[in-house]
Amino acid sequence: MNIQEDCAEKRIIKIKLCTKKDITPLFFIVLQEGVFVKTQVGQSVRTVLKDIFNINDELIEKRISTILLDGKVVDDIDSVIIKENSSLSISGAMPGLAGATMRRHSKYETFRTAITYIEKKDPYPVKTCCFAIKIFNILLVELAKKLLKQGIILHAYQLRQLFSEKKDRLKDYINYAYINETKVKPSDSWGFMEKYINDDRYLIYLNIKTSGEEEDDC
Amino acid sequence: MDKIIRINMSKEPAPEIKITDMKGYEGLGGRGLTSAIVFKEVPPLCHPLSSENKLVIAPGLLSGTMAAMSGRISVGYKSPLTGGIKEANAGGQPSQMLARLGYAAIVIEGKLKGEDLYRVFINKDGVKIEKDNSLKMLGNYETVERMKREYGQKISCISIGPAGEMRLAGSSIACTNTELRPTRHAGRGGVGAVMGSKGVKVIVIDDEGTNMREPKDRERFRQANAKFIEGLRRHPVTGEALPAYGTNVLTNILNEAGGYPTYNFREGRFTGAAKISGETEAALETERGGVATHGCHRGCVIRCSGIFHDKDGRYLTKQPEYETVWAHGGNCGIDDIDKIAMLDFLDDDIGLDTIEMGVTVGVAMEAGLIKFGDADGAIELIKEVKKGTPLGRIIGSGALVTGRIFGVDKVPVVKGQALPAYDPRAVHGIGVTYATSPMGADHTAGYAVATNILKVGGFVDPLKPEGQIELSRNLQIATAAIDSTGMCLFIAFAVLDQPETFEALLEMLNAFYGLKLTGDDVVNLGKNILTMERTFNRLAGFTKEQDRLPNFFKKEPLPPHNVTFNVTNEELDQVFNW
Ligand code: SF4
After folding, report:
1. Which of A92, A196, B8, B436 pairs as cysteine with B110 (C-beta 3.0–4.6 A)?
2. Is the confidence at residue B505, as pLDDT, over 80?
């Protein structure tokens, strides 16, 4: 599966869920494993973080203390660029000497020079495409909801695994669903979703809002 | 805390107990005291299981006081695993209780003739030792249950399981936690084997009728403690990440960075990491009615531990820590958190070091004894240890022995001790500490306080990163000093970032003892401890050739970043040049 080709719409099924209560914690496991987001790449880590989470600089500085791009530790979030097929991981403060070593601009950065991200000087074009993101630690609690509200893209099998374990609880929580922009009755929504998540050809664009917390119609 | 209990197991017809003063060891506690006693009193060339070795159990300088986080206990001895000096460290209740009873250390010396087993009981009225062969080969859980039936619920216990009785080099000593469960282990170096060789199964401590230790300057001490606690609560690691997820929150980030040793250090990433991460573990604990935030001793304000229930909601074990989850999990290709929790329970009950056992099972997998990912096979291997079968005794003897017996050339040990959960090819600086620590491969040896706060070795420009050799040296010095206080090392995260929190710690020591310690004094204490430990090892036959990582770390690139450990031997030899 080529993620960029698939991200370019043709195999994406859009599922928008409006839920009676916050179901974000059910997604913590897939957010640790990694999901995709579609945004303008070719921009700095800071710009992309602000875009996809809708957060400000203060929150980035205070809360996102560890950032890895393609498995390497990023110190300077203004000069390192997110690219097509990049994999970005973000975490709150981590314990242990190893945890402290992984921090941005850590006092112990000499301990991990082998895995520090060095940005190439070549220019990189700004364009819209998918990249992978993983969220760890306390940031799951703080940022997952924002990301799900903006929308994530994940493999059908990921959602299938998740739903198979949590199906009963999830069913009760769904207020209603939109599937490919069409509003579906709560009683029918599960059947429609299953049709797509059982088919590995699909990527699912998932967008979740909680009833009573949004300005729009959820 | 001005008395030492000395129990001479060689005396006949019964072991002899003497209570002595601190002469020659004044002002020392925790690792400072254990290493000083071993250094002065144990012949470096003795056999670790012989009558000449001593087992020294010491609370820290601040244990038994109102000071938060001060309940760690140090256990010192000559190690049957490394052949050198060792300090293994544990949480739980015994440290606070022993300190409140006024004891700075228990020293068990000599050796029994015969195979009898003893229990020791310590309370405000004194110390008793009794023969109790009914405890033979009991697991730590059953041993503690019996002690509860006999002495009540208000005790704490320090015990060994069957592994210690069999004198296996992977054995641990268990300390009971706040629920009187034997879950906090002085794990490393075969410490249980030394207690087993002395013929002591369990030490029961009852502090009823005692009070908190009184500081010289009560008000100053109270204020410093409040400031210290405030600093711990304010810091995002000690105030948020550790209480919420425990140390296992490290799994994801180490894995992502390609520094999570997988399949016996073949790879740096494990595909099942998210299934066994601290975030997943904590959610499961809460869902099953366990506890995701729990302190191992009263007075812990970080509370990095938890209580793990099985699928039916029954207690199984404490929250397995990062090192355990890694050793039995990713290192062995196992991504089932319930099976890992079962392995944690078995290790605790049999009295085994979880790091040593996880790495040993990984080596057994490398040898083809069972396949990587075979969780049930791993459980059976650990159960073999309890049965005392020849295979079980091999496994219980650790990674080095297992590798030798099964002809494995890739055995991740330094000075005979298994490497913990950070691949030194990805994080070179930690590799420097693994290689050079007098303790053998030890992740906590260079853990502690910011060198910029302590100004170890002069002023260090905070904007200029130190070289990894200097940094490893300075961290090892600082850690040795912190290990003397009885403080849990996890305070380091707050102390290293917040100078005022470090100052509060120093202030507590000064207010308690009426001292005027400065950062320099702390540095000197750390240096003295390391010097004693290095000297002991040199006299035990260690040379600089033991300060090396196994060669495969230099030769085999670690995927995904394909990095190797490139610190030269000459650089490693500079670590202790001060
Ligand atoms: S932080 Fe964790 S290890 Fe340290 S004393 Fe508290 S519970 Fe025990």
Report:
1. B8
2. yes
As a whole number, mean pLDDT of residues A23-33 equals: 93
Q: Is residue B300 in contact with ligand 1, taking CB distance under 6 Å?
A: yes
B228, B229, B303: residue to mutate for ligand 1 pocket, most atoms within 8 A of CB: B303
Question: How far away, in angstroms, is B278 Cα from ligand 1 center?
Answer: 15
CB distance B303 to ligand 1 below 6 Å: yes
Tell me the H-state helices in B412-557.
Answer: 428-436, 451-454, 468-482, 492-497, 499-513, 519-539, 552-555
Domain boundaries, chain A: 3-210
Q: Is A138 close to B241, i.e. CB distance below 8 A?
A: yes
| Mean pLDDT within B480-507 | 85
Nearest to B51 by CA among B113, B106, B121: B113
Best B248, B256, B293, B495 residue to mutate vs chain A (most A CBs within 10 Å): B256
Which H or E element spans position B334?
Answer: none
Does residue B259 belong to the interface with chain A, where contact is any CB pair within 8 Å? yes
For residue B560, is the peptide bond before it cis, meaning its omega torsion is within 30 degrees of 0?
yes
List all residues 6 or more positions away from A9 whose beta carbon is below 8 Å from its beta carbon.
Answer: none
CATH number of B261-420: 1.10.569.10
Q: Where in chain B is the domain with CATH 1.10.569.10?
A: 261-420
Residue from A29, A60, A134, A137 whose CB has the most chain B CBs within 10 Å, to mutate: A137
Domain B3-206 superfamily per CATH: Aldehyde ferredoxin oxidoreductase, N-terminal domain (3.60.9.10)
CA of B72 to the centre of ligand 1 (A): 9
Report chain B residues whose CB lies below 8 A from the CB of A107: 450-452, 462, 465-466, 496
Of B275, B427, B462, the CB nearest to A112: B427
Q: Residue B446 — pLDDT band, cuts 50, 70, 90?
A: low
Query: How does strand B126-131 pair with strand B118-123?
Result: antiparallel
The span from the CA of B395 to the CA of A86, in Å, is: 43
Asked whether the beta carbons of B128 and B200 are under 8 A apart, the reply is no
Tell me if chain B has a CB within 8 Å of the CB of A110: yes
Evaluate whether B332 touches B380 at the Cβ level (below 8 Å). no
pLDDT digits (tens, 9 = 90+) for B289-343: 999 999 999 999 999 999 999 999 999 999 999 999 999 999 999 999 999 999 9
CA dist B394 and B489 (Å) reads 32
Query: In this model, does residue A159 exceed pLDDT 60?
Result: yes
Does B196 score more than 80 pLDDT?
yes
Please count the residue pairs, one from chain A and one from chain B, whose beta carbons lie less than 8 angstroms apart: 152
Over residues B376-389, the pLDDT tens digits come to 999 999 999 999 99
The tens digit of pLDDT for each residue in B71-108 reads 999 999 999 999 999 999 999 999 999 999 999 999 99
pLDDT band at B457 (very low <50, low <70, confident <90, very high): very low
Asked if B426's CB is within 8 angstroms of A25's CB, the reply is no
Mean pLDDT, all residues of chain B: 92
Find the angle CA(B454)-CA(B457)-CA(B459) to the nearest 5 degrees: 65
**CA A41 to ligand 1 centroid distance, Å:** 42
Min CA distance, A120 vs chain B (Å)? 17
Prediction pTM value: 0.94
Q: State the smallest CA–CA distance between residue A180 and chain B in angstroms.
A: 30
Q: Is the peptide bond before B462 cis (omega within 30 degrees of 0)?
A: no
Residue A217: the pLDDT is: 57
